[in-house]
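Bit of a strange request maybe. I'm writing a small parser for structure token strings and I need a real example to test against, not something I typed by hand. Could someone generate the tokens for this chain?
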Amino acid sequence: MKLTVVGCSGSFPSADSACSSYLVEADGFRLLLDMGNGALGELQRHIGLYDLDAVFLSHLHADHCIDMCAYFVARYYRHDGGRCDALPVYGPEGTEQRLTTAYEDVPDEKSMSEVFDFRTLKPGSFALGPFQVRTERVRHPVEAFGIRIEHDGKSLTYSGDTGVSDSLNELAAEADLFLCEASFTHGKEDIPDLHLNGREAGEQAQRANVGRLVLTHIPPWTDGSRNLEDAQAMYDGPSELARAGATYQI
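Reply from user aminoacidic:
Good idea to test on real output. This should exercise your parser:
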């Protein structure tokens, strides 16, 4: 698998990165994990506008899904050959309504479903292109999912947004790469079931015995280097901060 960080800023775009969006590719299949603020523009640096095969939306906060509204425009009003076929979009219950409400001025209430094939996420496993996928609920104020993706004996786990979570531990177990949020600073913010800090992300990685930890979803007002140091104090494997444009072969 190839992982490309399209955007990794938490809560709102930074000067250097769009919000959460990660491209996973294998055997010619392209799966996008989240499409937050600014992600659609950055995605086009890596693949063509119509080259996606599926989208996974971890939850329905704007910094993880709002550029799907812009992508609707690109797919619905396509000028070079007619409207696009419906793209599989896996998201929490209510995804279609959320995006329709956010866009507001859709031609009719079913327009979104003409270009997006909405599929409601539930905890469990399923095949998606060449991937074997497992999704589980994680701890966040809205319905939110983490995801484990396996292909050819390798595995990638993406936390989405979450507080400390046993289900995330299960998803990350022995993963080759753990893409884990670290929004909060240890000793500064302490809000349960919302986000992880760097120390907690490191603890999750250590418990799950992952091969590599990549910290992501760090807001522009948070010191990423501090969060990385805190994670490294708890996790003894290789670790780094996500950065827009970075790629990983898994």
